[in-house]
Design brief:
2 copies of one chain form a homodimer. By secondary structure, chain A is mostly helical. The first copy, chain A, folds into 2 domains: 50 residues, Orthogonal Bundle (Arc Repressor Mutant, subunit A); 125 residues, Tetracycline Repressor, domain 2. Chain A contains 8 helices and no strands. Chain A is elongated and about 60 Å long. Chains A and B meet through α5, α6, α7 and α8 of A and α5, α6, α7 and α8 of B. The structure holds a DNA duplex.
DNA sequence: AATAAAAACTAATGATATTAGTTTTTGAGG
DNA sequence: CCTCAAAAACTAATATCATTAGTTTTTATT
């Protein structure tokens, strides 16, 4: 017996509204009460669609990771080697910039032990591995370099949005380019310069 | 007129207790009530020494940054060039590992706009710049490479503690070594291989 | 010993997430 | 069309939290 909810509320609608609210005002201003008001509903009603605030935030984080992975995948589509690497890194950086609040939620996960996130984490890696496949690396090397690349992208995005790069006048775009280029060079050396 | 507090409580004592409590149980389990209990005091009494929870957490974050900078500075003492670079990176990584909860607080700052943190942020950079001074870089290059190094260290520490590196068997120590080596190589090329 | 200030307390407020129990809506089957 | 069960929304309550106002206690200096 499939029922259609009274006023169109569902977990998906709640999640989407939560994402919107967080993107607008950030996590500190977010609350079940605020979300309920946005959905024209009493706070208690949300619990028909969501277990708890914690679960809701996990859903939001999961959604954010999916969007990030989608952006990465889109970025490398039809590209290879160095071009794919730069596009991937750029996409990551732009996501963190354009979805500041969502990126913060991703970074705020204490541990990625959640079964859903576990899966998503794997999907973060796959576009990177796909791109790395052009570099002639062993399987173990691919693991190492995928970690190094993720570290650089995440660290750069984090520092940039935290304002840690604003003390000096040098262009962050150029810092980013140099960093990616350095990794690209190291990558090519590791793989025997086949690219 | 200098008064000595009734039972030895002061901002410094409160701060230290807060740091201990956070290191033990993490930020989610931390509260003014819990802190007050630990200090054998009623919650309201804490406000004689601290403005608010927010200010207290800023103090904790500031303290954490100071400890990180101290560890970095200690690491490069008496070392130069590549040796200093590896020691610095290792110290950063170990701090994030050994003070997991404090490192999370550092990462959790929305913006480093706080005047105290502003100053501390500058001190994060100075041991790195000191180490870079051996590489024969222009001033602008130093800014870029300092950013790249910080990004790699922060990103690696973050992923490692979030569990994002645990999906594959390859040794994270080796990933880290390769990443730092890659940056060291790029750094030497940028500076004309003077090191 | 007296006093003023600091520090701790009690008690209250308002926000929060969450739960129990009740009412309302809704769609499916007779 | 009417009934009924389930889903969804509601009301009301609880417990926790940070924080503040106002009061009492302690303590160092005079």
């Amino acid at each position: 017996m499939i029922r259609i909810p009274r006023q169109g509320l569902s977990q998906d609608v709640v999640l989407r509204a939560a994402v919107d609210l967080i993107e607008e005002g950030g996590l500190p201003h977010f609350s079940m009460g605020e979300l309920a008001r946005r959905l024209q509903v009493k706070p208690a009603s949300l619990y028909n669609h969501v277990e708890s605030l914690e679960q809701l935030l996990t859903l939001v984080g999961d959604d954010a990771v999916k969007k990030l992975v989608a952006a990465e995948t889109r970025a490398i589509a039809g590209k290879r080697g160095q071009e794919a690497l730069f596009a991937l890194a750029q996409a990551y950086r732009l996501f963190a910039r354009n979805h500041y609040q969502l990126y913060r939620i991703i970074m705020a996960f204490p541990k990625w032990e959640n079964p859903v996130l576990e899966q998503e984490a794997g999907e973060i890696v796959s576009p990177i591995l796909q791109m790395l496949s052009d570099y002639g690396l062993t399987e173990e090397q691919q693991i190492h370099w995928q970690r190094i690349l993720r570290a650089q992208m995440a660290g750069f995005a984090f520092h940039e949005q935290a304002g840690g790069f604003s003390h000096y006048s040098a262009d962050p775009d150029e810092s980013f380019r140099l960093g990616v280029q350095c990794l690209s060079d190291g990558l090519r050396r590791a793989g025997g310069n086949v690219v």
